[in-house]
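User: Here's a chain of 472 residues. Predict its fold as tokens.
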Amino acid sequence: MTNKKIIPLLLAAILATSAAHATVSLLAVGTLSGSADLSSQTSGLLENGVAGNILGGMGSGFAWAGGNTFIATPDRGPNATAYNSLVDDTTSYISRFQTLNMSLTQNAPGATYAYSLAPTLIATTLLSSATALTYGSGADVGLGSGAPVLNAINGTNYFTGRSDNFDPSLSSGNLNNARLDPEGVRVSNDGKSIFVSDEYGPYIYQFDRATGQRIKSFTLPSNLDITKLSAQGGVEIASNAVGRVSNKGMEGLAITPDGKTLVGIMQAPLEQDTNKIVRIVTIDIASGTTHEYAYKLTTGSGVSEIVALNDHQFVVDERDGKGLGDGSTAVAKQLFKIDLTGAQDVTSLSGDLSLKAVPKVLFADLVALMNAKGIASSQIPSKIEGLAFGDDLIVDGLVTHTLYVTNDNDFVSAVAGDNKFFVFGFTDADLARLGASFTEQAIADVPEPNSCAMLLLGLGVMGVAARRRSRK
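Assistant: Prediction complete.
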């Protein structure tokens, strides 16, 4: 790059809004519909009468696994069907991740989208613990045990979404609690495991990708935890002055391209923080060392995701809850570029941390970009929650990076639409205008299990089934 092309960072910040709108483009839109996932052993009815393998919520978390393979995490399950307010209508839905093939095909010139996207579900993997977990007895909420029936059949301790599956004598950071609300997900660089962030603890767990069994837990800062737990979110909020807000815990998760650091982000301010400050938590995977940084909300009501551009710059998904599924029109679905370089650790601080907040620049306004392609604001999903970079494409002769954006339809496709996947494109020149750069995550190729290995995975734990290739 010549000196004449170098844009000072201050000017880049001023021009960021117009640059992002003008250069980030919507390349493809795909839909995945259907009534059930591939875990047939969980097909029995849940407490609310919904099938335990209902297909939905797949965009709560989304991660690239190499090539056309992606991992999707539904959240705590189908709790949009009212049946028992004492558990916030949650059920013993078994936590899981879905493995998808996302096939892109280039369209002819003049088409609405440069590419066509065809998502295909290829595996469902249930999440479990090798050690015993704490489940609710159900006695206080008028239900049976919160332990899923499949536990006894398979001799396995499965994580579930039911909100009373916890030990009330310990803080929400208790790693033996069975309740899990998966949100963010990322794949390890060796391709053999996934990292999942959760809203109940909040927790960050590492799971074996083939079996779904937990292999590691990370100790997060205690100021994120609450000490008075309840199966009802409203009661938890009213009972605690410190810690995460119920159902707004660690919503997003990133992994740096070198695979050494996890970066989680809370959905909403902690009880002890003010003025729209949200916490970012970095975790050194090898040592477990953590740091906290402040992020200030701009227009959205919360943060849903974070994904790494490189080892210090990230894209954050900030949104409102308006749009398809809310019965209204989408307003704020914005992506911001942030930089942790030189940021102050705020672990020991609380209150209004606005002066400590990391710098942010608008990367893309998703509502404007979708509107430009003819998608009405009323048809933009209210819960835009998943972000993942994918393989590069050639668009108009230029190497173009891809960013996959997904929705959480709350398992109610009749209201919130099907599982949607949007592919956006941007170039290195676009990033340079924002003072940013992009580094690929190096994910190793993992062979597809043969049929014998798939049988040995056994009894309802349907392992990953797609061959992945490293990104070129």
